[in-house]
């Protein structure tokens, strides 16, 4: 099991959101050997900030927290990324919260208390399912996008993208067929640095040149739509 875990989880970045410091430490110690990195947050507000400023592959989160709950955080995350899996860790909660948690897309529930083996098995299952079900997204004209590596390929050859171009394409891919507003792009790609609409348009133009014009559609006065 250990070798299989290391193979599956070695490249993933985990966002750990838990308001109890002792439990957060225990969770960190339970998984840090198997994953690439762990980014910690003490509530949903900080968790959302950390999600937007890092490349996150999996979220582990409590539900009931100060400032922003795990459920509200996930709803905010879904505005930027519809695919990243979230495992909610909860002990005593209302049936309403539990039902809402498992009804949200790509979300899972692990009830406290649980053993380290249960946690690792759940993480392995979630990441394994995600990678087997949709590792690549097929675009047009020979382009494919790897959800695992966050890389773009043309006829199986890697397309060189800058860091900003990668994050821009990533938010469009994860919200394919949905409008991605200028504000969403600014928050996810440029974060606290900020970007004007003219700057965003310039990078969209660069992406179109590296792919094909029809991939990204303008939505007048709102933002952009990725067409597959």
TrEMBL record:
OmpR/PhoB-type domain location: 134-228
Family matches, as Gene3D superfamilies: 3.40.50.2300, Winged helix-like DNA-binding domain superfamily/Winged helix DNA-binding domain
GO biological process: regulation of DNA-templated transcription
Entry superkingdom: Bacteria
Cellular compartments per GO CC: cytosol; protein-DNA complex
Pfam families: Response_reg, Trans_reg_C
DNA-binding span(s): 134-228
Keyword line: DNA-binding, Phosphoprotein, Transcription, Transcription regulation, Two-component regulatory system
Domain Response regulatory: 13-127
InterPro entries, per the entry: CheY-like_superfamily (IPR011006), OmpR/PhoB-type_DNA-bd (IPR001867), Sig_transdc_resp-reg_receiver (IPR001789), WalR-like (IPR039420), WH-like_DNA-bd_sf (IPR036388)
GO terms for MF: phosphorelay response regulator activity; transcription cis-regulatory region binding
Residues recorded as bearing 4-aspartylphosphate in the entry: 62
CDD domains on file: REC, trans_reg_C
PANTHER family referenced in this protein's UniProt entry, alphabetically: REGULATOR OF RPOS, TWO-COMPONENT RESPONSE REGULATOR ORR33
Name the UniProt record assigns to this protein: DNA-binding response regulator
